[in-house]
């Protein structure tokens, strides 16, 4: 979108903004924190407690890498009190219009020790999926507490306390995963997925990572990508392979049938489920993925 079109869209958006947002403000009067996707919204809500109204631009189940913002999204962003994005090029679609808005903005992943993507067109760029390691999300919580304190200084103590409690919960999930993986023979600690979204979790939990494509924006597997994963699964005798909730698992079915590995189940990465689904929060997302991976690799039923 060029700048002129953007300004027109923005003006149109502001002209109609009164109807929906004023209603929200009248409801509870809290400052609005707008995040780019559901996982980030839940992490932010844990730190915000009930002092801020945290929303997500994209809905549960949405594909976030190639998302196209609507005029309504731009309107919401222009009216927010604080915008939170993941950064690391995850929301290239978002950065384009945020740059023109006069709204405070915080990058949740600021300070994370990044891992570069090794393959394909993304080679050398940082892997955006930093939230897939609970240890990184501890840093997200600190960054959010700092940003919320700037927005609402009266809430400083509460944000610090919320972030500290959330850090503890994140550490428990991390420690539990590492303990359970330690029971596996080292050669079986391999995580084979559709998207290369698990680099940070693999690093922090001692897993070897293999994937079909690096980022979900390209969900067309090439024959070379599928063949490469098949060769790895065969050579390492990996018992189970996995795919994520927001993409087609067809290429991973090919891998499974070519190698005899089981399809170990659905992993959640780029989106939470609906509130009544299996992963309505980030902590449940990580626990679900840990359960699924451990059950797949050990041949036991998921907890
Ligand atoms: Zn992704």
TrEMBL record:
Record's keyword terms, sorted: Metal-binding, Signal, Transport
InterPro entries according to UniProt: AdhesinB (IPR006129), Bact_metal-bind_prot9 (IPR050492), Lipoprotein_PsaA-like (IPR006128), ZnuA-like (IPR006127)
Residues spanning the signal sequence: 1-17
Listed Pfam families: ZnuA (PF01297)
Compartment list: Cell envelope
Source organism superkingdom: Bacteria
PANTHER family per record: HIGH-AFFINITY ZINC UPTAKE SYSTEM PROTEIN ZNUA-RELATED (PTHR42953), METAL-BINDING PROTEIN HI_0362-RELATED (PTHR42953:SF1)
Coiled coil residues, start to end: none
Family: Belongs to the bacterial solute-binding protein 9 family.
Protein name (Swiss-Prot/TrEMBL): Metal ABC transporter substrate-binding protein
